Amino acid sequence: MIKRTLFLILTAMSLLTGPTSAAYGIYPALPQTPPGDFEVTFYPVAPYHTGDLLSARVAYTGSANIGGTHITVALADEPDQILETAAFSQNTRQATFYWMYDTRSHQTGYLSFRFEVPDFDLAWTQGVHLLPDLGNRSAAWSSAHSPCCTLHYFTGTDAEADLPEIITALEESSAEVLSQFAAAGVLEENPIQEPLSIVLVPMVIGHGGFATDEAVLTYTHDNWAGIEFTNLAHHEIVHVVDRLINTQGPRPSIFVEGLAVYLSGGHYRPGDALQRGAALLALDLYLPISEIVDDFYAAQHEIGYMQAAALVAYLDQLWGWETFIDFYFNLPEGESDSAIISTALEARFGIGLNELEGEFIAYLETLERDPQVEADVRLTVDTYDLLRRYQTLAIPSAHFRTAWWPPVNTMRENSIVGDYAYREKAPLNLIVESLFIDAHAALDTKAYARAGAALTNIDEILTWVEMSGGNLSHYSIGWPVNLHPRSITWP
């Protein structure tokens, strides 16, 4: 009787309060969600632990003009104490709260925030479940210096272990980039007045690298994006030096990226730009320049970059390197990239962009077909289409269109590491990423059948994920998988 009475009391309490735990606190039975036109994403990505420094990005998908509209965030149980105020961007229609709340002093359990858009008369709560501190997150920012570069990295990572080799590779890449621009006669003096800032992170974000006034590169022994480090470093250093020299006129994306791929000797890995352009044409993968030039980054990434490199290689061969760089560095202003390039072509050579493309295609058609290059190009496109599909399904924060890449200079200044240092991996992540690593290794050794088999396996797994709504057993897709134990706990 006592047991039955106790059972009834506990049941009644659960109905009144929802699930409870002394360790994890009280979880709301039905947390509020944002209105349909708003979506909140918290960072770093789940799972969340006490000690995380939380950020949030609020995206608006409605039809109202939201640019410049303010949004506030507060703890749900302290609504009058505003943590941060942000404004929606006119272009991205997003508002970002960087590092809005330090959870170190917070208990485990559900942590709820109150978001408010006063101009829309809207407010809602949304939050995260905080798990206990893992106790193994000891990474810190560190740096190393060389004549070419200031290298920023996290302690305890593969980058720290491989510092001598990395510094040598960066010295060689930066020297080669300067010599490539010098050959065009555009360097009166070394434009690198201060060492280049290079940031090495152990997480795959986007395709493995991006650059502004400093280059951010993925460096890990388990790099499932498959990009060869020296190639990536060369590519991003080209971008940095290009910006240092070419500061006046417009910089059409097709030339910006084509130049970086061409000068680095290939996209992801070494490959002849013109032969790969010819392979795209032979495989019926070629995209008309008129369709991609004005929205270059919306085109299929690998095809666009390979075509851009082939175009730069063709113009180098047709005009000579000095003439091409002079043409690129002195483009006129215009309403679009296509208009800019066409105007410059008409003024200098008396032809339009369409005519130039016709001659470019005709030249590619004269090149002898290479079955190995065609197989490599097709599998490269398939690999990265799958990689982005995986990112969309499993880790949107890594997809280049929705990537979470907060400013690293601010992170260094404030000793913030969590956004780039850690990513916990579920069995699905380990299985898929190990298959990507195998596919890349096969591509590197021209074992195309093996690469194709790995891609087929990944495609089947992702299809199962889509069909199951993400609720599939990892045992059904190949778990356990034989990986280095460190991969389970470290990116």
At a glance:
Helix content is 44%, strand content 17%. It is of the alpha+beta class and 491 residues long. The strands form four sheets. Strands 4-10-9-6-7 form a five-stranded mixed β-sheet, with no helix packed on it.
Task: Give an account of the 3D structure.
- With 491 residues, this protein is of the alpha+beta class.
- It folds into 4 domains: 1-30, no CATH class; 31-131, Immunoglobulin-like (Sandwich); 248-369, no CATH class; 396-489, no CATH class.
- 44% of the residues lie in helices and 17% in strands.
- It has helices spanning 2-17, 158-161, 163-182, 229-245, 253-264, 273-282, 289-292, 301-319, 321-329, 337-349, 353-366, 371-394, 408-413, 418-421, 427-444, 448-468, 486-489; strands at 20-21, 25-26, 38-43, 48-49, 53-60, 70-75, 82-87, 94-102, 109-117, 122-131, 141-145, 149-154, 196-201, 209-211, 215-218.
- The protein is globular, with a radius of gyration of 26 Å.
